[in-house]
């Protein structure tokens, strides 16, 4: 399921609900429907920037890589796979963070589920 974030400050941002939930949980917002007011935007930007910095300091663990590699060899799977690509939290959060920055500048709200 997708969530679409709307604001007069920027183009719509669409995100899978599972990915948006982590961001909205950090901001203490409901993932089904909600609003980040212009007054809340500076704090939301601060929280997301801090979480992005934290996530960048902890790269994918070796255990996760071993698990992925092990699953590729199950059921006669060949071993000629593309390199594992991890989509980081910062990559997923950036479009919404950018929208929030623009909303903060322009004094606009960000809404979803409406």
From TrEMBL:
Pfam families, per the entry: DUF1840
Biased composition (Basic and acidic residues): 52-75
InterPro entries assigned: DUF1840
Species, as recorded: Massilia soli
Top-level taxonomy: Bacteria, Pseudomonadati, Pseudomonadota, Betaproteobacteria, Burkholderiales
Disordered as annotated region, ranges: 52-82
Protein's name in the database: DUF1840 domain-containing protein
